[in-house]
Design brief:
- The chain is globular and about 60 Å long.
- The protein has a domain at 66-312 and 372-416: Cytochrome P450 (Cytochrome p450).
- It is built from 18 helices and 13 strands.
- It is of the alpha+beta class.
- α10 (161-171) crosses α11 (178-189), α10 (161-171) runs antiparallel to α14 (246-278) and α14 packs parallel to α18 (372-389).
- Strands 1-2-3-9-6-4 form a 6-stranded mixed β-sheet, with helices on one face. A 3-stranded antiparallel β-sheet has the order 5-13-10. The protein has a two-stranded antiparallel sheet with strand order 7-8.
Length: 418
């Protein structure tokens, strides 16, 4: 997700349309839902002072904006930096910027369509369903390793390794590279913190360079000797003479590796926390495949892994009476939309048996998460195998969330089961 800069200042916005909350305040990022409740009760369309742009918290609004083609993830395909008053790229983040240059997450058609078509077939439901037995084996291998311990950080020993290993294997990297991939990804994700420091930018840039160096070596190897993996598919796919460049393959591989575990790790941690705090007997939550699926969807809704996704206005327009100019940024508040009382009965209750289940945690429209079918299977397997093997699982200490508001996930999740 590319870091987005608000380009133009706003003035004369009525006080009752503004809201203030510091994303770096522990009281906020530990529990942003009180802020969301106030927005839903007053103005779900509001100007967030700290971010300096308009945000939308209603489920109906967010769903519409995700599909509205007047908004896009990039802006320089329709206007120049000079026209928008956009600053030049920072030289010290050039490697990080290069990893995102051809990112599916940031491109708009036709470039987005071209790349997504080449990658999409690896992630369709019927294909990833074939991975379920591998994910079941992997989940049990992880539990076997820590079951004899008194307590563990479930994020480190279970939630993080499973999706990292699966996406690495799909792309064509060895499973043993997963810890390094996770470390690089975590350093890169720090770029999305509010008020990111120069030191963090340098560190994320170095992680990006190291990541590119490793993927570049594997790309060179696959060009010499293709295999049955996604990386080889991207390198050899030829659509009427249209072949992906090494830079395009590298950006796509790094995006898939990062996005292929980030949301799943957070949802696993947040979901286990939600289940254990609810007091509901886990046996009832995973008694059938249908109830398992419903429980996963409620975990995605109740404590979403991504809380804000941004878009550029591609032209001057109005949205719900708000005048927007080309290049303006809007914030789509996924976590708030999932708790909208206008859409969900008892929106702040964790209820895996609800009949009005839905969520926008994977987005919608052309940027709907390409890995959603895989993530859902990983979550279904992780939850069901974990609680099958450890039915007495409980929290060993109060979980705390990371200081990265956009990516809403726990620092650690200490559990025990004796």
């Amino acid at each position: 997700m590319a870091a987005i800069i608000q380009l133009k200042p706003y003035q004369n916005i009525p006080v009752d349309r503004r809201a203030s909350a510091n994303p770096r305040d522990p009281g906020f990022f530990q529990n942003p839902y009180g802020f969301y409740d106030r927005l839903h009760a007053t103005n779900p369309s509001f100007f967030w002072d700290e971010y300096g742009h308009w945000c939308f918290a209603g489920f109906k609004q967010v769903s519409a904006l995700l599909r509205d083609k007047r908004f896009g993830r990039e802006i320089l395909h329709v206007a120049t930096r000079e026209q928008l008053g956009m600053p030049e790229p920072k030289p010290h983040t050039s490697a990080f910027d290069l990893t995102e240059k051809h990112s599916l997450l940031n491109l708009e058609p036709p470039a987005h369509t071209r790349l997504r078509t080449l990658v999409n077939r690896a992630f369709v439901s019927r294909h990833v369903e074939q991975l379920r037995p591998r994910i079941v084996r992997l989940a049990n291998e992880m539990i076997d390793r820590f079951e004899g311990q008194e307590s563990v950080d479930l994020l480190k020993v279970f939630a993080a390794p499973i999706p990292a290993i699966i996406i690495a294997e799909m792309i064509g990297l060895p499973a043993e590279s997963a810890p390094q991939l996770l470390a690089w990804s975590n350093r890169m994700v720090a770029m999305y913190m509010f008020g990111v420091s120069h030191e963090t930018e340098l560190d994320a840039n170095q992680a990006s360079q190291d990541f590119m160096d490793m993927v570049g070596d594997v790309i060179a190897e696959r060009r010499r000797q293709p295999r049955e993996d996604l990386l080889s598919h991207m390198l050899t796919a030829d659509r009427g003479g249209d072949i992906l460049s090494d830079e395009e393959v590298m950006s796509t591989a790094i995006l898939l590796l990062n996005a292929g575990h980030e949301a799943t790790v957070h949802t696993t941690g947040n979901g286990v926390k939600s289940i254990l705090e609810s007091g509901i007997d886990p046996v009832t939550l995973f008694s059938t495949p249908e109830q398992t699926e419903a429980t996963v969807e409620e975990c995605l809704r109740y404590d979403a892994p991504l809380h804000m996704f941004t878009r550029y206005a591609l032209k001057d327009m109005e949205f719900e009476g708000i005048a927007l100019r080309q290049g303006d940024v809007v914030g789509l508040m996924l976590g708030a939309a999932n708790r909208d009382p206008a859409r969900f009965a008892h929106a702040n209750d964790f209820d895996p048996f609800r009949s009005d289940g839905a969520n926008v945690s994977f987005g919608a429209g052309i940027h709907f998460c390409i890995g959603a079918p895989l993530a859902r299977i990983e979550l279904q397997v992780a939850f069901s195998e974990l609680f099958r093997r450890l039915p007495k699982l409980r929290l060993a200490e109060i979980p705390r969330y990371n200081d990265v508001y956009h990516f809403h996930g726990l620092e650690k999740l200490m559990v025990r089961w004796d």
